[in-house]
């Protein structure tokens, strides 16, 4: 292969940017779902290809997943749980939030440009060892299509885009795969133009309904391709909390310090689980298609103990054991942003070759650029959880006919939080809350 040196240094990097935003807010009158238009114009290049998908309901109802789509889903969840364990061990601060679906989708798109051991290691890390690329692409395309529109009262939006330096040619089969299966928008930009980051940031802001802004501060002179995946989730509670019942309550942090945080309270019917060293509850959104699962360590245990045992098997055990009953529930309000570079966790999980300029093989993106490699993977998330929910008061159930006090479940110590599609079990987000004030 003839090496083409296009930069001051003979390294060409690509940047994968993964974004996610989750809100539990009442939709404002007249508010449009993000990405419902044609996408942000770049002003500095030409764009084409797919646009944003949005969850606004489906006339035919949810469609069942195929066996291969279920395999992709299971692999995405398992990969996400392992990635979460790695990031939790490395990240500073009390709070962490990842989107397993966002990360796996972005890396699955990159598989279409990888060859040799780069492809093999990435596929193995993602859980697709031995699965033909065409089947991976088709399964992701089907899964993402079916996840959209499963609940007309919930905004679930996933969008992909590929931005490349206009002087850097990319192979058409790579572009076609991203457009056809991942509905990615492909845009050529002059990365030397100071306006280039703004074009990408405008698209990001639109895709996350303004929740994530100014993500790209600068583009490194050696970076020639930027891949962006954005997920946005906005759902009203099926059983809203009464804002008048919210009051300051103590929350014990991991270091033993106690802080006062606004805490929501409800006496209602919830699916909960208490066994295996954890206490868990699920709060459904809207029509019940999506739910938020909270998992706290049982008394005498720590959240680190829970995270160390987190696996597809334990997660399945905890969620399948959820049983509905009356419960007095205390949940702190929380809102935070989280950003973390995923280079080290992904390398530790088996994907190191993709980050190595001397060994990476992304020749199916550009066969002339021998040192093309992943330079950085940036993941940024946002979550906002508070009282507001739907106006369907029928979902607010207070059990009558008994004078006994209900069981109490308090999330007054560090806990796990996850948002999932309940029928398939797709993990959209998973995180830890160590300090609700952050």
Structure characterization notes:
The protein has 438 residues and is α+β, with helices and mostly antiparallel strands. Helices cover 25% and strands 32% of the residues. It is built from nine helices and 17 strands. It has helices at 67-90, 100-111, 116-126, 133-147, 172-182, 196-207, 303-308, 312-320, 343-351; strands at 12-24, 45-49, 53-54, 96-98, 155-165, 185-189, 223-234, 247-252, 258-275, 278-284, 290-297, 323-332, 334-341, 372-385, 408-410, 415-421, 427-433. A hairpin with a 5-residue loop joins strand 8 (247-252) and strand 9. Helix 1 (67-90) crosses helix 2. The radius of gyration is 22 Å and the shape is globular. The relative contact order is 0.23.
Quick one: CATH superfamily of the largest domain? Antithrombin, subunit I, domain 2
Structure annotation, total helices = 9
Helix-and-strand structural type: alpha+beta
DSSP strand (E) fraction?
Answer: 25-35%
Largest sheet: 9 strands, mixed
Judging by the overall fold, what is the CATH architecture of the largest domain?
A: 2-Layer Sandwich
Please report the distance between the alpha carbons of the first and last residues. Answer: 51 Å
Q: Kindly give the count of domains.
A: 2
What's the average pLDDT?
83
* Coarse shape: globular
Topology pattern, helix = H, strand = E:
EEEHEHHHEHEHEEEEEHHEEHEEEE
- Residue share in helices? 10-25%
CATH topology of the largest domain: Antithrombin, Chain I, domain 2
User: What oligomeric state best describes the polypeptide chains here?
Assistant: single chain
Q: What CATH first level of the largest domain would be assigned?
A: Alpha Beta
Detail the poorly predicted runs: 1-10, 26-46, 48-59, 389-403
Count every beta strand, where a strand is a DSSP E run of 2 or more residues.
17
The rounded Rg comes to 22 Å
């Amino acid at each position: 292969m003839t090496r083409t040196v296009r930069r001051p240094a003979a390294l060409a990097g690509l940047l994968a940017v993964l974004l996610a935003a989750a809100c539990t807010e009442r939709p404002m009158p007249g508010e449009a779902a993000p990405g419902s238009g044609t996408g942000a114009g770049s002003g500095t290049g030409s764009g084409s290809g797919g646009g944003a998908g949005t969850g606004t309901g489906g006339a035919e109802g949810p469609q069942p997943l195929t066996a291969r789509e279920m395999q992709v889903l299971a692999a995405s969840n398992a990969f996400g749980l392992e990635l979460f364990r790695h990031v939790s061990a490395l990240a500073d601060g009390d709070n962490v939030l990842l989107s397993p679906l966002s990360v796996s989708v972005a890396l699955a798109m990159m598989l279409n440009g990888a060859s040799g051991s780069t492809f093999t290691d990435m596929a193995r890390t993602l859980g697709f060892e031995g699965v033909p690329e065409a089947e991976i692409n088709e399964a992701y395309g089907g899964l993402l299509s079916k996840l959209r529109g499963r609940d007309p009262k919930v905004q679930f939006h996933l969008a992909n885009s590929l931005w490349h330096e206009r002087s850097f040619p990319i192979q058409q089969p790579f572009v076609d795969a991203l457009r056809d299966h991942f509905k990615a928008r492909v845009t050529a930009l002059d990365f030397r133009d100071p306006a280039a980051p703004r074009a990408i940031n405008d698209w990001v802001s639109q895709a996350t309904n303004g929740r994530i802004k100014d993500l790209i501060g600068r583009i490194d002179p050696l970076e020639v391709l930027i891949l962006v995946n954005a997920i946005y989730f906005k759902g009203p509670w099926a059983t809203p909390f009464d804002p008048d019942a919210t009051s300051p309550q103590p929350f014990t942090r991991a270091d033993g310090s106690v802080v006062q945080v606004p805490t929501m309270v409800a006496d209602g019917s919830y699916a909960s689980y208490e066994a295996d060293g954890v206490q868990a509850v699920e709060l459904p959104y809207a029509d019940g298609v999506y739910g938020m699962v909270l998992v706290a360590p049982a008394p005498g245990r720590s959240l680190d103990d829970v995270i160390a045992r987190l696996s597809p098997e334990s997660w399945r055990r905890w969620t399948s054991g959820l049983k509905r009953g009356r419960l007095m529930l205390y949940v702190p309000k929380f809102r935070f942003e989280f950003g973390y570079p995923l280079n080290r966790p992904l390398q530790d999980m088996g994907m190191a070759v993709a980050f190595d300029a001397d060994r990476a093989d992304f020749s199916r993106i550009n066969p002339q650029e021998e040192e093309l490699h992943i330079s950085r993977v940036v993941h940024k998330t946002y979550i906002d959880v508070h009282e507001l929910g739907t106006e369907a008061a029928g979902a607010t159930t207070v059990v009558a006919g008994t004078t006994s006090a209900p069981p109490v479940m308090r999330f007054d110590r560090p806990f796990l939080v996850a948002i999932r599609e309940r029928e398939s079990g797709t993990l959209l987000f998973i995180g830890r809350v160590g300090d609700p004030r952050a």
